[in-house]
Automatic annotation (TrEMBL):
Species assigned in the record: Lederbergia graminis
All residue ranges annotated as the GyrI-like small molecule binding domain in the record: 18-202
Protein name as catalogued: GyrI-like domain-containing protein
SUPFAM superfamilies xrefs: Probable bacterial effector-binding domain (SSF55136)
Domain of life of the source: Bacteria
Amino acid sequence: MKYEWRKMDKEIYLPKQTPTIYNDTEKKYIMVTGEGDPNGDEFQTKVEILYALSYAIRMMPKSGYTPEGYYEYTVFPLEGIWDLSEEGRKLDYLDKNHLVYQLMIRQPDFVTEELFQRAVDTVKKKKKNLQVDEAKFISHADGLSVQMMHLGSYDNESETFSIMENYCEEQGYKRKSKIHREIYISDPRKTAPEKLKTVLRFKIEAK
């Protein structure tokens, strides 16, 4: 049976438009880091690296190599962990040029460092212009968090964060830091801004 994240992992990727507490356990990712305005070319290139490597792994059986434990699956959605540079934190408004980010795509459990390197070698041969050596294979867990589905433009996320922060207060928690995760359920190239679905998540701790 094909592993479909939209069906199997609804709690993670399709939460309601109301806040929920979620304990994020360790998962495997391919990750790249960057900084600056996400509307620029550099950001898009990093996204391309992640998708190229993720699809290289998924398509391995069709190119004659079946990894141990392989199963059919849908490539997971793009995710980003967002922070600000020291300069950016001093400002009382958001300057996107000061954003610092880790972009990642989750990988199935059977993926190993060795398999990741095999994907890197494959993509290097096909797309010589892509700096795939930037990518790393990591394990990561956010731990205890609050998350919620944000519907609409990325620029309106602050409204959803306010709802999440108020919920934390009511439940006896506080937000750990301004760092947060976004999971992009919609493709912004094909979706109107007001219809974009983005899961927002930040780490919490008891007050």
